[in-house]
Amino acid sequence: GSLKVPNRGLNTFAPQISLVYYPERPQKSKQETEEKISYNKSGIFEISAFGARKNFFYRGEDRHDIKPFDGYNYSVYGVEAAYMKPFSAKSAVGLGIGITQDDEYNHTMYIQDHILMQKKRFSNNQVLFSIIPTYRLMIDRLYINIGAGYYAFKKGRKYDETPFFQKIGLQYQFNSRVFASFGINAYQFHVANYLEWKIGYTFPRNSL
Question: Is-above-0.85 flag for pTM?
Answer without folding.
Answer: no
